[in-house]
Amino acid sequence: MADILTPDLCVIGAGSGGLAVAQAARAYGASVVLVEKARLGGNALHAGAIPARALVAAAAHAQALRDGAAFGISADEPKINFRKVHDHVEQVITALAPQNAAGRLEALGVEIVRGAARFINRKALSVGDTEIRARRFVIATGARLPVPSIPGLDAVPYFTSETILDNTRKLTHLVVIGGGAVALELAQAYARLGTEVTVIENGPLLAGFDPELAGVALKRVAEEGVTLRPHATVTAIQARSMGIGVAVQNGEADQLLDASHILVAAERMPNLSGLDLEKAGIRMNKADPRLLLLSPGLKTSNPRVYAVGDAAGGQSVQAAVRQAEVIVRSAILGTMAKPDTLRVPRVVSTDPELAEIGLNEALARTRHGVGFRVTRWSYADNDRARTSRATYGLAKLITDRSGKILGAGVVGPGASELVALFSFAMTGGLRADKLAELVAPYPSYAEIAVRLGEEFRRGEIAKPLIRQWINLNKLLG
C-alpha cells in the first residue's frame, strides 16, 4: 500500500529556489515535504555558480602573477596544475555542502522524499510508492542545458558549462559556443589558465546588459587573448582523427577553425520533463512553449501549483531566493504579491566584474523616453582604483527627473558589492543626491557611490530654478 503524505507544502527540487522555499515555509510553521531525485543543493552548488566562481578565482591568481611587473614584482609565467585547480573547486563544494545536508533540513522539520516526482492529478503527485497530497505545490526543478542543432556536434565529445567544471587537463584550443555571462566567465578563466579560447555567438555578446558597460568587460577579455566572434554562427562540426573542425560563418565569410575541445554554453531553459504537467492542468506559455504559463505571482494555470527559480524562467540564485519569499507568503499566508525582478542584481564574474540592478540606459529610454538622467563616474578618478592599478572601469546611475534611482550599473573591481549599495538605496527609496551623504572609507571603491551622488547634485544645482534660489539666498544673506 502506498504511503500518503498530506503536508501544507510540497516542493519539487532541492536546488537554491527549492531550498529557499522549504526553509521559508518552515519559518512560518508550515509542514513541508521536499522531493529530490539527485543531490541536495542543485546545480548552483555542484555544477553552476559556486564551482564556476571557484574556477574564476583560481584563474585570477594565475593572472595576478602575470600582472605583477607593474607593481615591481617579477614572476615567471604561472605553472598550472589542472588536477589541483579541480581539487580546489571540489574543496569549495565540500565546504559548502553541509549547509544543504539532509540532516540540517530534517532538523528544521523538512521531510525529504527521494525520487522523481510525477503529477497524477490536479491535487496530488507520486514519488515511487509515495503519494503526496499537499495543499500547495512548488515546482523548483531547475534548468537544463539545451544542445544546439549543429550538424556533426553529436559525432564529437563536447563539454557543457556544467561538465567542464569536472575537467582535470589543460586544453589546447577551446571553442565556446555561446556569448552569455557563463560563456564569457569560463572563456576568460580558461584563457588565464593557459588555453587558447575562441567565443562564438550568433548575436551580441552579453546581450541584455548595458552595451557601454559590457563593452568595457569584453575589451579586457579580448586583451587577455580571448578571440571574440559576435554575430557569427557555427554551421558544422567536423570529427577528425586529431582535433575537431569548427565551421564558422560570419556574414558572407566562412572560416574553418582547428579546435581541441568544444564548450556548449547556451542559455539554460526550464527542466520540466517527466513531471506529467498536463495531468495537473498546468499549461505552457503560448509565446514560448519552453516556459510555464505563470501569473505575476508565479502561480501556474493550476492555482495550487507555483514555480520558482529556473523552472519559472529565472537565471540566478538571488532571483530564486527573492521569488521564494513571495511564493511562501502567497501559499501559506494567502497574501497577494509578485517579485520585483528589477530589484535583483545581475552579475557577470569576468574581470573586470560587471553588475547591474534595476533599469539600464536602454530600458530607461524605453520606459521613460527622455525623462531620465544618466550620471557616470570613472574608476580612473577613484583613489583606491589608482593604488591597485585597477582603473579599468565605469559606474552609471540611472535616475528619473525627481532623482529617484531607477537603476545602476558598474563594471570594475568590486562591482557586485557596489551594486549592493545601490540596491539598498533603491529599497529605501533614497534619492540620488543622498548618496553624497554616505561616509565611505578612504580609499575605497565605495567612494564611487558617493561621487555619483555628488555629480548628480552638481547637475541639480545647475538647473535655473535652483540657481535662482541660491542667488536669492545670497541677496537675503
Automatic annotation (TrEMBL):
Gene3D superfamilies: 3.30.390.30, FAD/NAD(P)-binding domain. NAD(+) binds at G178, G179, G180, A181, V182, A183, L184, E185, E201. Residues 344-449 form the Pyridine nucleotide-disulphide oxidoreductase dimerisation domain. It comes from the Bacteria. FAD binds at D310. Its cofactor is FAD. PANTHER family: MERCURIC REDUCTASE (PTHR43014), PYRIDINE NUCLEOTIDE-DISULFIDE OXIDOREDUCTASE RCLA-RELATED (PTHR43014:SF4). Belongs to the class-I pyridine nucleotide-disulfide oxidoreductase family. This is Dihydrolipoamide dehydrogenase. It comes from Devosia insulae DS-56.
